[in-house]
Amino acid sequence: MRTKWKRHVCILLPNKQHLDCAVRVRARGHEVLNSVLKQLGVSDLQVFGLAVLRDNEYLFVDLDQKLSKYFGKRWNTGSIKVPFILFLRVQFYLEAGQLIMSSKEQQLYYSELRQKMLRSQNRHQEALFFQLAASALQAEVGDLEQKDVEGEERKQRHYFLPEDYFPSWLIKRRGRDFLLQNSPVLHGELRGVSRSQAILQFIREASSLQDGAVTFYRMRQEKKELRSSILLAVAVKGLHIYQEVEGKQCMLYDFSWIDIDRLTFQGSRFEIAAVGSLCLPKLVYYTHSAFHSKHILRHLSDSHRLHISTRDAVSHIQQLENMKASQLYKEAYICDTISLKQRLHCSNLTSSMSDCSVAVEAATCSSFSVAVEADTDWVEEEEEEDVDSLSEAELWLDEPEEVFVDDPAEVSWLAELLHGVSVDGPLVSNSSDWAAVTMEMKQILWRRADEGASVD
Fold it and tell me: How do beta strands 269-274 and 260-266 pair?
């Protein structure tokens, strides 16, 4: 393949590193992702996506589409010497960090949350930032050494830069000396916590940040408004809608996934209809373009599907954490890591979420529907790529049936994850894979808890 038919793509990672690859002019997103996987040495990146910066906003690339769709005419006239920039970003935030099976992916997930913490503007959650800084210091520095000499203790307070662990507004409010003096106290309380446990603790705490584990999209209240004052936040459990007032984010609506009845767009017009019981009017906002609307809608659909497919595993992880906290449960099984990897490789989260364009049968129990209505501009844009027909399509997101499995190993891998163990395998997606605990196992655990017994 001749050089002039190649394009140089630079992929920026959450940890401030970058990867480079050369792809064909007619390449699709999958080719870049495959290069990223090979260079990182992982089999999959289930919660990450490739994003392009368009109109000062990150949009996740449809991996089945040609890259020329995202870079326009510049892509066709470019050369191997001029890089095109893509970003590897968290596309799906999770309720529990233990669900990320690859240690490398978990590290990247942590890195992105670290950067979001430094940019956070949640000034009413000041105490949380001290907890996050302590967890990050434990993960990156390790145990804080205890010194008997006062002079040594004074020096010990300067083993980190506040700018690396606190947002700028907090440094300005409290002062660098205050942070250097008090942060080591909280850091010291985490003595003995392993690096992997500290990372999981940081991920759990960062999820409490209002602008932490969310993806923001800017929208306008009126089509002709020059400034986008509405922020639509795609969160783990649903949608948050904020309005910026004098530089502050004021929450207008907080929708869980079950609160949303229907999402539709027509060109740049984006509508959110809540379930009737909430008695809310249909919310109408405007995106930058129909291109943005389509990608936002896809992200919402996939995020909802991930929430449905992981909720049972999250519930069981929480149960195991509660048992561990109350010292009523100890792991009794040895997890067969090789068998676990083979079982997890049988499932693919990415492919399951790409099936969002397929309508399920009417007999399935749906949570909310997503409809796409196209206007003339959108049709013209899509005709260039000769893709889907855009008359009117409807999407039903199904609720998976509850499935129980009789293999106690399904319990053990979840319990093992609580101790900071991670395996380089893909994240499980299907409901049958996430169903981890049988009724028999639950009864055994509950009975032992009642008896105050522990398993050695």
Answer: antiparallel
Query: What is the per-residue pLDDT across 89-113, written as a single tens digit (0 to 9) for each?
Result: 999 999 889 999 889 999 999 999 9
48 token code pair = 């990450």
Q: Is the pLDDT of residue 409 over 90?
A: no
Q: Which residues pair with 90 in a beta bridge?
A: 48
State the average pLDDT over residues 190-207: 94
- Give residue 410's region: left, alpha or beta (phi > 0; psi -120 to 50): alpha
Q: How far is CA 116 from the centre of its chain?
A: 12
| Tokens coding 6 | 């190649």
Tokens of 368: 């909310």
**Four-residue CA torsion sign, 285, 289, 295, 297:** positive
DSSP secondary structure code for residue 189 in this structure: T
143 contacts 192 by C-beta, under 8 angstroms:
yes
pLDDT for res 370 = 54
Beta carbons of 162 and 171 less than 8 angstroms apart: yes
Q: What percent of the chain has pLDDT over 90?
A: 53
Asked whether residue 340 carries a pLDDT value surpassing 90, the answer given is: no
What domains sit in the chain, N to C, each tagged with a CATH number? 3-90 (3.10.20.90), 97-206 (1.20.80.10), 215-450 (2.30.29.30)
Report the DSSP beta bridge partners of residue 196. none
CA atoms within 13 Å, Cβ hemisphere of 234: 25
User: Dihedral sign, CA of 377, 379, 384, 385?
Assistant: positive
290-325 vs 376-383: helix crossing angle, rounded to 10 = 90
Backbone angles phi, psi at 87, to 5 degrees: -120, 130
Ramachandran class of 44: left when φ > 0, alpha when ψ lies in -120 to 50, beta otherwise: beta
**pLDDT one-digit tens code per residue, 141-176:** 999 876 633 445 545 547 999 999 999 999 999 999
pTM attached to this predicted model: 0.75
48-54 and 84-90 beta bridge pairing: antiparallel
